[in-house]
Amino acid sequence: MVPAGSPVAGRYFSDLGRFAFSGTVGAQDATHTVAIYRRATGATSWQKLAQPTSAADGSFTATVPVTDAGAFTMAASISGPPSDDDAIVSNEIAVTVERSTVTMDKLVGSIDSLKDPTVTGRVFPARSGVAIIVDVNVSGKYVKTAAATTGATGTYKTTVPYGRGNLASYTVRTRYVTANRPTRSEASGASSFKRVAVINAVVTNTTAAEVAKTYRAGCPVGASKLRTITMNFYGFDKRMHRGVLIVRKDLTGKVIRGFSSAISHRYPVAKMNNPNVYGGNDPKQMAADNTSGFNCRKVVGNPYKMSPHSYGIAIDVNTVRNPYRDAKGKWWPANGKKYVKRTPRKFGMLTKNSSLTKSLRTDKFFWGGFWSPGRDYQHFEYRG
């Protein structure tokens, strides 16, 4: 008896390869049926594995899938199992079947909610081409969420996209469907990670393309005096999102500090798109509830005055829930009129006690909610 199809020559592994049996019977027994039996060490009963047919010369062969791990005794027998008194039994062969396994390395403890943790591990015995399934525990049931394939050394690597943007913990395992028993999987131990709220702000030089709809010749500042902040924000859906704000280059630290505070206190932001999305049209982006910074334009409702946004020193936040009243008494945007009444306070409204307001005011930003007779609840303007 030898291993057939084993990843390691001369060794047996559960659910991999086959037992290859061969032998002969005496001429007087050549017409008898031979059966192959297995007995687990310590057990008293024998289990029939195969029933090969003997050839005319008395030789027989059989292959049987390897399944369970453990120590076993194998024997061929005629006229019943080896335990029968009248059975004709071959010599016994002792064999050890090692357990084949998949392991997963410990996951990162916590990670930016918008990033995906890396999953790594290996199979034993090492072999390539094993289809690895990554499961996430959802309400007490494991659900497939990613896949990988082992390389030549038996290792695998992939990521877990499940739950991206959520603020929650997740338990993960990996597994593969066993070759010899397709209804069974070999699974690793479980490991958990937590998606957390962080700003992960990245500041880059503002490009001409980024201000294609918000800058024109003659504007007081151009791209060289601006910086683009790409950062995470906490949304109205209570999930994390990625957005963009363009401000004057010396204000990036203050702006990041302010929106970090907003995240920490779970102050929500509806949208944070580059105003290019709205063609640089401020009434249009106000109606879309967009949060934005630089936009070279006149004051809405006053075509004779240049807006502070033209200098990259102003930010408008949640423009629908924090409407603006111009000097003539008109409220912008129209769909923000239902939020003119500031009590009771609603999700996303700005007040003097909002975390974002407090942080930006500490860094010398004026809040438009203090203006009178006009009101600009959405507006912050640097006056340092």
Distance between the termini: 86 Å
Beta percentage is 35-45%
Low-confidence stretches: none
Radius of gyration using CA atoms only = 35 Å
How many strands, which pairing sense, and closed or not: the largest β-sheet?
6 strands, mixed
Instruction: Enumerate how many helices there are, as a single number.
Output: 3
Shape: rod-shaped
Instruction: Look at the structure and give the mean pLDDT.
Output: 95
The tally of structural domains comes to 3
What class do helices, strands and sheet pairing give?
A: mainly beta
- Subunit organisation of the chains: single chain
- What's the total count of β strands? 29
Task: Please bin the fraction of helical residues.
Answer: under 10%
Describe the model.
Helices cover 7% and strands 38% of the residues. It has 384 residues and is mainly beta. The protein has three domains: 2-98, Sandwich (Immunoglobulin-like); 101-195, Immunoglobulin-like (Sandwich); 202-382, no CATH class. The strands form eight sheets. Strands 2, 4, 5, 7, 8 and 9 form a six-stranded mixed sheet that branches. Helix 1 (252-264) packs antiparallel against helix 3. The longest helix has 13 residues, at 252-264. It is rod-shaped. The protein starts with a strand and ends with a strand. The mean pLDDT is 95.
